C-alpha cells in the first residue's frame, strides 16, 4: 500500500511541476511578445489612417456607438494646422463569408468617402481577399462616393456598388461595414456640424 501511495504522490508532484513549468513558459512568452504585438497593431492602425485621410499633423480619437448597436467605432479626427481635414473610422461587419471583417473608412468633413482600406479579414484567398488593395483595385470604387446620394449595396441588391466576382457575400459585408461607419458618422459628426451651422445662422 505504501508503494502505491508513493507512486501516486510522485505522479501528482510530476504533474504539478510540468504544469508550473508550462505556465511559467507561457507567461514569459506572453510578456516578451505582448509589447511588440501591440506596437505592430498600432503601426498598422496609424498606416491605415494615413491611407484614408489627407495629410495631417494631429489626431484626436473618440469612440461612438453605431445606431444599430454592437461594438463601438473608433473615430480618428485628423487635423492640419488646426483645421479638420478628414475623419478615419475603424469599422466592422460580422457578415463576411468567413466571419468578421474590419476596415478603416476615411471621410472628408462634408461626409464624402475619401478612401477605404481593410484591416483584418479571413476571406477566401483569390476571391474574397480582393478587398485587399494589394490584391485588387475593387475597393477604389468607394473613393469620393457620397453615401447620402449613393446606395452602399451591391447591384444585385439594387445598390450602386459592383460586387466581387464569385465573392458577393464578401462585397455585401464590406458595404455593410462602410454603411455602419457612415451611419455613425452621420449621427455623431454631421448632425453636430449641422447644429453648429444652424446656431451660426
What keyword list fits this structure?
5 strands, alpha+beta, 42% helix, 23% strand, 201 residues, 2 domains, five-stranded antiparallel beta sheet
Task: Give the integer mean of the pLDDT values.
Answer: 88
Major sheet: arrangement of strands = 1-2-3-4-5
- Given helix and strand content, the structural type is alpha+beta
- Outline type: elongated
Q: How many runs of DSSP E, i.e. beta strands?
A: 5
Sheet-strand content, in percent, reads: 15-25%
Explain what you see.
- By secondary structure, the protein is α+β, with helices and mostly antiparallel strands.
- It folds into 2 domains: 1-51; 53-200.
- 42% of the residues lie in helices and 23% in strands.
- The protein has helices at residues 2-52, 168-200, and strands at residues 58-64, 73-80, 83-96, 99-107, 113-120.
- A 5-stranded antiparallel β-sheet has the order 1-2-3-4-5.
- The longest helix is centred in the first third of the chain and has 51 residues, at 2-52.
- The model has no long low-confidence stretch (mean pLDDT 88).
Topology of this structure?
Blueprint: H1 2-52, E1 58-64, E2 73-80, E3 83-96, E4 99-107, E5 113-120, H2 168-200
Antiparallel strand pairs: 1-2, 2-3, 3-4, 4-5
Short description:
By secondary structure, the chain is an alpha+beta fold. 42% of the residues lie in helices and 23% in strands.
Amino acid at each position: 500500500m505504501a508503494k502505491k501511495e508513493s507512486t501516486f504522490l510522485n505522479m501528482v508532484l510530476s504533474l504539478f511541476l510540468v504544469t508550473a513549468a508550462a505556465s511559467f513558459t507561457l507567461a514569459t512568452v506572453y510578456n516578451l511578445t505582448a509589447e511588440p504585438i501591440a506596437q505592430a497593431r498600432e503601426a498598422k492602425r496609424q498606416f491605415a489612417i494615413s491611407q484614408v485621410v489627407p495629410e495631417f499633423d494631429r489626431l484626436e480619437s473618440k469612440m461612438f456607438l453605431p445606431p444599430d448597436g454592437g461594438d463601438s467605432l473608433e473615430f480618428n479626427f485628423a487635423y492640419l494646422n488646426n483645421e479638420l481635414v478628414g475623419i478615419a473610422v475603424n469599422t466592422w461587419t460580422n457578415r463576411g463569408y468567413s466571419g468578421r471583417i474590419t476596415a478603416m473608412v476615411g471621410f472628408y468633413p462634408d461626409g464624402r468617402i475619401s478612401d477605404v482600406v481593410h484591416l483584418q479579414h479571413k476571406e477566401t484567398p483569390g476571391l474574397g481577399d480582393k478587398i485587399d488593395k494589394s490584391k485588387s483595385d475593387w475597393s477604389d470604387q468607394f473613393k469620393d462616393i457620397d453615401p447620402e446620394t449613393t446606395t452602399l449595396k451591391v447591384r444585385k441588391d439594387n445598390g450602386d456598388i459592383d460586387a466581387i466576382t464569385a465573392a458577393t457575400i464578401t462585397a455585401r459585408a464590406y458595404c455593410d461595414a462602410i454603411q455602419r461607419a457612415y451611419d455613425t458618422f452621420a449621427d455623431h459628426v454631421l448632425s453636430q456640424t449641422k447644429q453648429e451651422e444652424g446656431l451660426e445662422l
